[in-house]
Design goal:
5 strands, 6 helices, five-stranded antiparallel beta sheet, 26% strand, 163 residues, Heat Shock Protein 90, alpha+beta
């Protein structure tokens, strides 16, 4: 089977949930297990959140209730681009932004590293993406944006049938 979709949406917090639902609907044709589906949705959620918060610095909607500071109130214009493709038994997902980019990708990918500690960010986004997907690549250029490429093979949970 081969299938493809492309979606472009505003870089605002509410669209993180939209991206999760869209990718879940798209990969459902592959008949993933609940665990595979949860892995994909979590990885996409992390990548989209990174694009919104770090790429465009749109923090509105990510604070604790009542924790509104001026940075949270500002919405910077920007789009997040999601491209998903199914080839055979593998789902390929690309999340892209055209925001400020990452100065040091290797540093950003270290578990617990965050460029926004003042906003209680955990620094585990890339670690989760890496743990839940079979492959992860991150490309970024300062001032031009970031591209996150992930892939997940579906149907490798044959242990379920063995039980």
């Amino acid at each position: 089977m081969k299938n493809e979709m492309k979606i472009e949406f505003d870089a605002i917090s509410i669209n993180e949930g939209f991206a999760r639902v869209a990718v879940a609907a798209f990969v459902s044709a592959m008949n993933p297990t609940m665990e595979e589906l949860a892995d994909i949705k979590t990885a996409v959620s992390e990548a989209v959140t990174n694009a919104i918060i770090h790429g465009y610095e749109n923090l509105y909607g990510y604070g604790k209730h009542g924790d509104r500071v001026p940075a949270y109130e500002t919405i910077h214009p920007g789009k997040v681009y999601m491209h998903c493709e199914i080839k055979e038994d593998t789902c390929y997902i690309v999340i892209q932004d055209k925001g400020k980019g990452i100065v040091d990708v290797d540093k950003a990918m270290e578990p617990l590293f965050t460029s926004k500690p003042e906003y209680n960010r955990s620094g585990m986004g890339f670690a989760f993406m890496e743990a839940f997907m079979d492959d992860l690549e991150v490309f970024s250029e300062e001032g031009r944006g970031t591209v996150v490429k992930m892939q997940k093979k579906i149907g490798v949970g044959s242990w379920i049938e063995a039980c």
